[in-house]
Task: inverse folding
């Protein structure tokens, strides 16, 4: 039997929304402060997936410059009706304290790759927006409700009729669901089947108590009856299960009448430990039984020792391997590990922080065959960083690059960064000095930042004055990061030299950051490898990167 291996979207691809249009499947996931906004993956068999577009790619569509870490784009919902794609999403501007600023928008397109329209503001009453298109021609807009009174926060699920032509809600707002005993109800989706409206929600928070809840009603406005086997999926009672944090789900029906559920998940390094690959997307096969309730299809036995099935809650625990649908296999071209910069467009795996990639700070033409970054603000900035980065998608990965950089002072830096957010990163970089005996010299050094506190893991920086090309490498293996550099080639490969001690890579995870931030601040992204350049003197000194190589070892 053909199997799907979970997770299907590895490395920081949370809050999945799935649709089928003909023979094509699409999943949209959250991107938070990373630009362009919203990742959309494509598949024809639910087994093999490829990142094909990020629809919010213009500043006129997405203005998130200055938003705090893990704010920005939350929980997109992708739907399709009458030949038009609809994408709804939240742009979180503030999430501290009782007040939450969470405007919701919708954009449309006749094709999945766009161009997508300018955003229309729908409302701002809560986050996790969703559209449901009924078979009677009506559409409905729903979201969770933020209730700031007495720090209540989660105010249940609200719904309102939606005018697709005007792209605005119309009529009365209905409060349809206050949640189940698991609480923290969000991420609503509605489906219509067998005379019922089914309401699927995320509950229990986004960490190890996360779960998928289901309720139903004969009326879209309720009241909603909670499923007897609720929650439909959770790993909270199975701490050794391969897939943890399972929740925030969506459903899709195949051409052959099979049903699948995609959902958020995480793969901790240790039992309920730190997830360096962030929150990812997994899939399970589900079935509708005679009682018109939804269950996991548990008939498939994968015989895999790494997959734990909780005997008490066997219908609730998601598996590493699930049965593939009865669809023809559809493979995509294998991605190249080594990315050169001699093409007109940048590899789709790269994103920038909060702002578009514009010619004033990034170029592949100013020096042919190289990526040129013009130095701007620090790695702690929420405004104008010069950094492009790609997701860490496995528990053992390598990132390599080669940089040419001639700094004139200590405020100018360029190199390879292992990054989570503005307060957590490890940075192997080249910098200069313009003072005393070190004036005019160039050095390799490391800066580590943990909860906004910077340290220098090597006591003495390594001088590389007069050396044009410097190779940099990060070996991210489980919880450790080991940096290397090379200034010469031996047997056609860089002659790598270890630099600095093994660093704690597990600090680049939601699980760590959420416990170190002062007060409550959202921590919802994942670890990245990035190429970066800073010029804190304001002179915009540039660095040239020859290539970037990403490899997965596990």
Result:
């Amino acid at each position: 039997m053909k199997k799907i291996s979970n997770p299907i979207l590895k490395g920081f691809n949370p809050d999945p929304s799935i649709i089928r249009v003909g023979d094509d499947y699409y999943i949209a996931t959250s991107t938070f402060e990373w630009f362009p906004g919203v990742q959309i993956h494509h598949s024809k068999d639910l087994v093999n997936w490829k990142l094909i577009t990020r629809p919010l790619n213009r500043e006129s569509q997405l203005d998130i410059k200055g938003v705090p870490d893990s704010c920005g784009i939350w929980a997109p919902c992708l739907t399709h009706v009458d030949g038009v794609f609809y994408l709804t999403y939240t742009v979180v501007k503030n999430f501290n304290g009782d007040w939450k600023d969470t405007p919701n928008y919708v954009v449309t397109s006749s094709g999945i790759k766009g161009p997508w329209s300018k955003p229309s503001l729908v409302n701002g009453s809560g986050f996790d927006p969703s559209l449901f298109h009924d078979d009677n021609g009506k559409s409905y807009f729903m979201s969770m409700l933020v209730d700031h009174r007495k720090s209540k926060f989660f105010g249940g699920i609200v719904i309102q009729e939606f005018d697709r032509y005007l792209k605005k809600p119309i009529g009365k707002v209905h409060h349809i669901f206050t949640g189940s005993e698991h609480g923290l109800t969000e991420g609503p989706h509605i489906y219509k089947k067998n005379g019922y409206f089914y309401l699927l929600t995320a509950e229990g928070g986004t960490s190890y108590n996360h779960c998928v809840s289901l309720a139903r009603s004969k009326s879209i406005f309720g009241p909603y009856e909670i499923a007897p086997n609720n929650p439909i999926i959770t790993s909270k009672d199975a701490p050794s299960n391969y897939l943890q944090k399972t929740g925030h789900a969506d459903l899709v029906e195949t051409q052959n009448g099979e049903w699948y559920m995609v959902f958020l998940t995480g793969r901790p390094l240790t039992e309920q430990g730190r997830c360096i690959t962030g929150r990812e997307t997994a899939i399970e096969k589900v079935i509708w039984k005679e009682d018109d309730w939804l269950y996991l299809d548990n008939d498939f036995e994968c015989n895999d020792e790494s997959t734990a099935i909780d005997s008490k809650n066997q219908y609730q625990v998601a598996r590493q391997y699930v049965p593939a649908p009865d669809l023809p296999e559809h493979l995509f071209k294998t991605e190249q590990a080594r990315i050169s910069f001699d093409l007109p467009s940048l590899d789709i795996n790269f994103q920038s922080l909060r702002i578009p990639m514009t010619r004033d700070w990034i170029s592949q033409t100013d020096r042919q065959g190289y990526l040129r970054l013009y130095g701007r603000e620090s790695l702690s900035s929420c405004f104008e960083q010069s950094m492009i980065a790609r997701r860490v998608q496995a528990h053992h990965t390598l990132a390599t690059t080669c940089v040419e950089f001639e700094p004139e002072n200590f405020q100018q830096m360029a190199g390879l960064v292992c990054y989570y957010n503005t307060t957590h990163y490890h940075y192997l970089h080249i910098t200069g000095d313009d003072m005393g005996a070190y004036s005019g010299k160039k050095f390799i050094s490391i800066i580590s930042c943990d909860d906004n506190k910077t340290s220098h893991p090597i006591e003495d920086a390594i001088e590389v004055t007069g050396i044009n090309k410097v190779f940099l490498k990060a070996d991210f293996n489980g919880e450790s990061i080991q940096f290397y550099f090379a200034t010469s080639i031996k047997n056609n490969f860089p002659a790598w030299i270890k630099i600095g001690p093994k660093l704690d890579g597990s600090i680049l995870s939601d699980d760590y950051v959420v416990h170190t931030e002062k007060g409550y601040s959202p921590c919802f992204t994942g670890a990245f490898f990035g190429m970066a350049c800073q010029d804190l003197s304001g002179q915009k000194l540039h660095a040239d990167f020859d290539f970037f190589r990403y490899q997965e070892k596990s």
Q: What stands out?
A: The helical segments are 510-513.
